[in-house]
């Protein structure tokens, strides 16, 4: 078996082992706080996975939280206003994020770099304005509180399993896509779009597909977040969440699906540790982002862990 074949089999095995460990973790950890943080890790990872899949194509989305907000408000309004069953509202949340993401990408697919980044921020601010000013429907600046707990998701443990499984499914789908021919084309766009166009590849369709998949993942994440914390407001889905998502993706590894999960996990836990520092947490995150860009451009996923492991093993062997 050659090195590439071994690598192709190693990642799914590692994925399954980690997934199995996380599945049995609640049996040993009963702390509600630890389970709560774990759910936030999974939801942030889901958001970051979608952002990273978009970033593979070279697109810069600075308003990714907008699609989490679309999913959250869609599901909450369906459940509270129309008495829609939660799981149907959950599907509609992903579908609405898909539709809005498709329409947006269809209109702006020709934009590049800073222009696209500005439009993603503009869409986010427009949606916040809609949520804030249409009080009757969206609850205004105060948002919507006392969101009913869905049947089957009445405890943090139940949310833990649902968010873990959802994150794992989305991760596996997008990871497989990133390793397919489509994944090669998406990463090739960031390197040389003109080269792909010269051989007849429709690069706009590739970007549109990537954006829609990332937006859908964000919509599903926002839906679960809304029902997990039982309250939403416009500022939850503003610049702060978009910036955090970007930081998760860059520190984990720009364009890497695995890196998005690692970055979201590490920084979500770190934010809890640094909670007592208040606003200084943002400064620390910013410093970590700068350090990563300068000294570790491939992010945490870019570290050659296999070489590091062999070096540690050799040093221990030599010491012994």
Give the secondary structure arrangement, pairings included.
Layout: H1 3-24, H2 32-55, H3 65-82, H4 86-108, H5 113-133, H6 135-138, H7 156-179, H8 181-198, H9 203-229, H10 239-253, H11 257-273, H12 280-295, H13 305-319
Helix pairs in contact: 2-7, 2-9, 2-10, 2-11, 3-4, 3-5, 3-9, 4-9, 7-8, 7-9, 8-9, 10-11
List low-confidence stretches.
1-6, 305-313
Mean pLDDT score: 86
* Global geometry: globular
User: In whole angstroms, how far apart are the ends?
Assistant: 32 Å
Give the class-level CATH name of the largest domain: Mainly Alpha
In percent terms, what proportion of residues is strand?
Answer: under 5%
Count of runs of 4 or more consecutive helical residues? 13
**What order do the SSEs take from the amino end to the carboxyl end, as H and E?**
HHHHHHHHHHHHH
Per CATH, which architecture of the largest domain?
Answer: Orthogonal Bundle
What is the CATH topology of the largest domain? Answer: ABC transporter involved in vitamin B12 uptake, BtuC
Structural class: mainly alpha
- Topology, number of strands: 0
The largest pleated sheet is described as: none
Number of domains: 2
Fraction in helix: over 70%
The gyration radius over C-alpha positions equals: 20 Å
């Amino acid at each position: 078996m050659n090195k590439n074949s071994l690598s192709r089999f190693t990642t799914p095995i590692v994925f399954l082992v980690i997934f199995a460990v996380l599945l049995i973790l609640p049996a040993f950890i009963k702390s509600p706080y630890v389970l709560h943080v774990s759910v936030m890790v999974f939801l942030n990872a889901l958001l970051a996975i979608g952002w990273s899949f978009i970033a593979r194509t070279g697109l810069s989305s600075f308003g990714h939280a907008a699609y989490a907000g679309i999913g959250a408000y869609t599901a909450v309004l369906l459940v509270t206003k129309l008495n829609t069953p939660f799981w149907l509202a959950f599907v509609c949340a992903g579908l609405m994020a898909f539709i809005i993401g498709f329409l947006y990408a269809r209109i702006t697919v020709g934009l590049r770099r800073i222009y696209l980044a500005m439009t993603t921020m503009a869409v986010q601010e427009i949606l916040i304005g809609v949520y804030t000013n249409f009080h009757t429907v969206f609850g205004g600046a105060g948002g919507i509180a006392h969101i009913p707990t869905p049947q089957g998701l009445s405890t943090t443990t139940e949310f833990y399993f649902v968010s873990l499984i959802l994150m794992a499914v989305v991760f596996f789908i997008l990871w497989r896509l990133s390793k397919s021919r489509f994944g090669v084309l998406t990463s090739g766009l960031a390197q040389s779009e003109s080269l792909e166009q010269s051989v007849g590849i429709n690069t706009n369709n590739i970007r549109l597909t990537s954006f829609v998949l990332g937006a859908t993942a964000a919509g599903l994440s926002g839906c679960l977040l809304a029902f997990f914390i039982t309250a939403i407001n416009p500022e939850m889905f503003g610049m702060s969440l978009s910036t955090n998502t970007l930081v998760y993706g860059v520190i984990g590894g720009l364009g890497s699906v695995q890196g998005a999960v690692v970055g979201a996990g590490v920084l979500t836990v770190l934010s809890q540790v640094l909670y007592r520092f208040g606003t200084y947490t943002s400064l620390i995150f910013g410093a970590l982002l700068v350090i990563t860009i300068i000294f570790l451009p491939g992010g945490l996923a870019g570290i050659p862990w296999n070489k590091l492991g062999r070096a540690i093993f050799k040093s221990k062997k030599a010491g012994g």
